[in-house]
């Protein structure tokens, strides 16, 4: 199908191409209202639409936002983060161009260069989890960091408040009456999120007059299998030293603890209370019982990042915006069993 050109509109309306351009771009001119109406009517009749490339060169606005990420498209949380960003973009007439680099520096460098050369109106750089990173070379000024922050500042960034999240998870167990609270930590690459959650856990224990027990701080792969092994290690302790409550680094670890507990006749929450982290879809609410957990605000972070990228809100380029991580209460937390009433799982092996 042949594209209708501006000159075709001019010929059909009996005016010059310059007149058509002035009218259709609402430019200041001395063109009569009658001529303007005729030009617009003819443009509609012949099916003329502006060339977006030509318009972007003229206005320096392409209507696109670049979003570069390491593995956002393959993580269970990416959908909510991307949906939040795309909602804001769509509400403001922008299209998001997503490039998932799978963590390859060469692909990342090429993606950033290509998006800059295509004159995107803004850029968002997203990470699969909260971490501190060196800013990639070539990022334009004003690039917004999503779920990560540049180690030297200089860019707006939004991250979850993982310290507060660690506090609220631990406080939930303390408020239920627990004193022996374990933290199953991430043993894989120690992202900043793990350190912040650990600090929140330790601070709440200290404020509650609970002496932290190093035996209750164990490490696990961030998987259900890792959670099962961590639970076995914790319950290999002498009965008086076992936890009555567990704060798991993420919901997958918590799911493994639940599976192990069911297998060994330990009731949740009657014998053991568990708090997870992430509020992962198809995991937290589907466990038996449904998991009390801390929600990561991925959709809200995606919206915030896009609003900053579009200039809809201001942000401090040297201090990341901390997004609240609320507790989601379900049925996996209760008061601790009376001393000595909890079952010994090794008796059922």
Overview of this protein structure:
This is LacI family transcriptional regulator. Keywords: DNA-binding, Repressor, Transcription, Transcription regulation. One of its GO terms (molecular function) is DNA-binding transcription factor activity. Residues 4-59 form the HTH lacI-type domain. The chain is an alpha/beta fold. It folds into three domains: 6-50, no CATH class; 64-160 and 299-324, Rossmann fold, CATH 3.40.50.2300; 162-291 and 330-348, Rossmann fold, CATH 3.40.50. The protein has eleven helices and 14 strands. It has helices at residues 6-13, 17-24, 33-46, 52-59, 78-91, 105-117, 162-175, 192-207, 224-234, 251-263, 298-309, and strands spanning 64-69, 95-100, 122-126, 132-133, 144-146, 149-150, 157-160, 181-186, 217-220, 245-248, 273-278, 292-295, 321-323, 327-328. The strands form three sheets. A six-stranded parallel sheet has the order 2-1-3-5-7-13, sandwiched between helices. α8 (192-207) links the parallel β8 (181-186) and β9 (217-220). α1 crosses α2 (17-24), α1 packs across α3 and α9 crosses α10 (251-263). Mean pLDDT is 90; it is low at 339-349.
């Amino acid at each position: 199908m042949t594209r209708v050109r501006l000159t075709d509109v001019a010929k059909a309306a009996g005016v010059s191409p310059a007149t058509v351009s002035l009218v259709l771009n609402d430019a200041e001119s001395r063109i009569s209202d009658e001529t303007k109406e005729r030009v617009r009517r003819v443009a509609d009749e012949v099916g003329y639409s502006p060339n977006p490339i030509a318009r972007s060169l003229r206005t320096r606005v392409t209507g696109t936002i670049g979003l570069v990420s390491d593995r956002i498209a393959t993580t269970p949380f990416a959908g909510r983060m991307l949906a939040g960003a795309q909602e804001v973009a769509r509400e403001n007439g922008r299209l998001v161009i997503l490039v998932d680099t799978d963590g390859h520096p060469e692909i990342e460098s090429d993606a950033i260069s290509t998006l800059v050369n295509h004159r995107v109106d803004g850029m968002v750089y997203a990470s699969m989890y909260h971490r501190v990173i060196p800013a990639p070379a070539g990022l334009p000024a004003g690039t917004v960091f999503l779920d990560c922050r540049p180690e030297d500042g200089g860019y707006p960034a939004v991250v979850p408040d993982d310290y507060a999240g660690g506090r609220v998870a631990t406080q939930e167990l303390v408020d239920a009456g627990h004193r022996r609270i374990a933290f199953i930590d991430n043993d894989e690459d120690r992202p900043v999120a793990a350190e912040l959650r650990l600090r929140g856990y330790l601070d709440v224990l200290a404020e509650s007059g609970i002496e932290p027990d190093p035996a209750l701080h164990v490490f696990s792969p961030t998987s259900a299998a890792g959670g099962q092994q961590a639970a076995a290690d914790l319950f290999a302790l002498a009965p008086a030293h076992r936890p009555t409550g567990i704060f798991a680094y993420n919901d997958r670890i918590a799911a493994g603890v639940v599976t192990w507990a069911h297998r060994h006749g330990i009731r949740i929450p009657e014998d053991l209370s568990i708090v997870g982290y992430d509020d992962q879809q198809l995991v937290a609410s589907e466990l038996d019982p449904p998991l009390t957990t801390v929600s990561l605000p991925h959709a809200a972070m995606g919206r915030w990042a896009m609003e900053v990228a579009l200039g809809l809100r201001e942000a401090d380029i040297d201090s990341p915006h901390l997004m609240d991580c609320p507790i989601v209460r379900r049925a996996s937390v209760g008061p601790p069993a009376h001393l000595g009433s909890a079952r010994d799982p090794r008796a059922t092996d």
